[in-house]
Amino acid sequence: MHVRGSYATKVLNTGLEIKNISAQLGHKNIETTENYYISTTEDSRRKTVNIVDKLINDEVINDIISYKIVDANMKNKETEKLKKL
């Protein structure tokens, strides 16, 4: 990675908006910054895994998933009852 890429990645990881970083680097489109100057770091990958892990194991998410499964099963049973009529 080159100096501009290192700079862009470090600044983005501080929480600044990519649009501002892109403008600072003189890019007309943020896609240029995203595709050529920003890279992932070990720390950012670790944080992503931790966030996704927390979401997956969140009780509210599990309740929603359980509700949808129960709701789907109930709809299937209701559909079967209507077919018998």
Annotate the secondary structure layout.
Elements: H1 3-12, H2 18-24, H3 30-37, H4 42-56, H5 59-84
Helix pairs in contact: 2-3
Describe the structure.
The chain contains five helices and no strands. The chain starts with a helix and ends with a helix. It folds into two domains: 39 residues; 42 residues. 78% of the residues lie in helices and 0% in strands. The chain has 85 residues and is mostly helical. It is elongated.
Briefly, what is this?
This protein has 5 helices and no strands. The chain is mostly helical and 85 residues long.
Descriptive key words:
85 residues, mainly alpha, elongated, 2 domains
**Ends distance:** 68 Å
Structural class: mainly alpha
**Percentage of residues assigned to helices:** over 70%
Please count the beta strands (DSSP E, at least 2 residues each).
0
* Helix-strand pattern: HHHHH
Q: Which descriptor suits the 3D outline? A: elongated
What are the low-pLDDT stretches, counting only 5+ consecutive residues below 50? none
How many structural domains are formed by the residues? 2
Oligomeric status: single chain
Mean pLDDT: 83
What is the rounded Rg?
23 Å
What kind of sheet is the major sheet? none
